[in-house]
Amino acid sequence: MASCRVLMLVLFAMPPVPALGLQDEYNRCVEQERHERDGRSLGVPRACRPAVLELVRYARFRLDPPNVTCGNPSNKFCRLENEYMCGECDSSTPELSHPPSLMFDADRYTTFWQSVTWQNNLRPFIINITLSWGKSVELTDDIVITFESHRPSTMILQRSMDHGHTWHAYQLYAKDCLKTFGMRSASILNLSANSSLKVICTEVYSSKFPSKEAQVVRFEVYKRLKLHSGPSQQDPATLYNSLESNRVLRNFFTLTDLRICLLEPAIWGDFVDQRNLNKYYYAISDVQIRGRCQCNLHANECEVGEDGILGCVCQHNTTGRDCKQCRTGVWSRGSYLPYPRGTANGCTAPKYGECICNGHSSRCSYIDQLNLLVCVSCQDHTRGHRCQECQQGYYRNVSAPINASNACIDCACDLFGAVHDHCDDSGQCQCKEGTTGLKCNQCEPGFHWHRGCQLDVCDDGFLQCQNGGDCQGGRCICLPEFSGLRCERRGCHGSDGALCHSEAARSRLAPKRVVAAAFGATFALWTWDFGRRSR
User: Fold this and answer.
1) HSE (CB half, 13 Å, CA atoms) of 523?
2) d(C-alpha 127, C-alpha 7), whole Å
3) DSSP state of 115
4) What's the pLDDT tens digit per position in 220-244?
5) With pLDDT > 70 as the criterion, what percentage of the chain qualifies?
6) Which residues on neighbouring strands pair with residue 287, listed in sequence order?
């Protein structure tokens, strides 16, 4: 099965959004404080953020494959629990049409999107639904997906923080987690503050014999946040302190895109009924996602721009859709805590010199202990107080100026042939014994390549293979009844340095597992062997 793929764009019409403020401890971006000597009122920057929104109203959605909505041409579908109760989907008739926009309309329970059925020869039956905001948003409450059909047997909820370039799992859903994803089933009740960001597989929302009354699938955001609210899970101050000190915690609930990967529809029992594939399909009536614009504590308003995408109304001399850049001046680190303790990460006038980062950063910070102005968050694999050096594992591209995006080049040292992953200024990696080449991916004479360069055990002259073995590339290829480095032992044992001619028995496994990367770890995605599971 292919991983969740890049999806075709279908725009969702968004209503105008008023500039909204938040009436709590974060609602003011500037706090007026009276000067002690002359009584003048001074504006002091404070950490602030916008109000909570129904984020689906401001998203653009896309489907993959793009032609998976039912009704074009019209098609028949039946109930899973009763194959004789059937209906028709027809996009040319409003009453029988179920377009994707009905997942996000105001009528949450009587209108719905519906896919084609498994009768349409989708093998496997995978559909991806992606919501994109064009900027960073942060979740404040549970993600709730309401199905008009039975809840799927298998699905994954994923997030992206870089507009869909990379994806990380939020949660896995299956009726048998161990069999499907190689993970034990768990629930939010199994988590603690130390494990609140763990990606789990849950069987709570999937069943071998699904019920039509059970239609809701959740990703529990609120309960995860409560785990950081003190022993009683009721203390906001403790949560603020956790968010202040734990950047990973803040980032876990921040995303630019959300993807719903529908991997298998509800199936009654263990087998797919090939005689009536019209009863297998997906249908979603509502998606609820509550959160706010991520403005890096520099805005208490968020509004739709001329391009139809949400953007922060930035203060504190910041700019950008997420208020991540300084208009002018130097970036000063503040606090996530609310007023009066918290202060925003502000942009102030350069008191200690000009912020020069060679085009790889727009922010600087002054370090009192060193009396030094340093660049913050150097990009393009650069480092140094002016982003003038390359990170470990990269070397300076002498053909490009220091302010170019390709000023630093990946050393690309071979994993098996090099001592480590960094190189000298010419790009030469440090090679292991017997290995040579710029990237340490070639062997010196007398060595052969096998996960690095290994000393030859045979040649065409003095070092010959025994018992009829054949020397190929410095290794002995033994006859089936012999093994060992030079085929000196009777019996095939698969010793290092020698190859046996016996073929490993292969069995046809179903289901198959496909490994995919997510959140820095690996997990298995499901691919159904349709013929093996059919009856």
Assistant:
1) 27
2) 10
3) B
4) 998 998 888 877 767 777 777 777 6
5) 77
6) 145
CB neighbour list of residue 417: distance below 8 Å, 6 or more residues apart: 429, 431, 432, 435, 437, 439, 440, 441, 442, 452, 453
- Ramachandran region, residue 494 (left: φ > 0; alpha: ψ -120 to 50; beta: rest): left
**Which CATH number covers residue 134?**
2.60.120.260
Closest CA to 375 of 326, 419, 422: 326
Distance of CA 209 to the CA centre of its chain: 31
b/e string for 58-86 if b means 16 or more Cβ within 10 A? bbbbbbbeeebbbbeeebebbebeeeeee
Whole-number Å distance between alpha carbons of 298 and 313? 8
**What's the chain's average pLDDT?**
79
Helices (H), 123-176: none
Report if residue 475 sits inside a domain. no
CA distance 272 to 260: 23
Whether residue 141 is contained in a domain is answered as yes
Mean pLDDT of 193-212: 85
Pairing of strands 143-147, 283-288: antiparallel
Both tokens of residue 54? Answer: 């129904």
Q: Work out the pLDDT band at 463, boundaries 50, 70, 90.
A: confident
Those residues whose C-beta lies under 8 Å from the C-beta of residue 264, and which sit 6 or more positions away, are: 124, 125, 152, 153, 154, 155, 526, 528
Structurally, how many domains does the chain consist of? 1
Tally of helices (H runs) and strands (E runs) in the chain: 5, 42
Q: Kindly state the average pLDDT of the residues 71-82.
A: 88
For the record, the structure tokens of 126 come out as 């995978």
Residue-number span of the structural domain to which 118 is assigned:
8-12+50-297
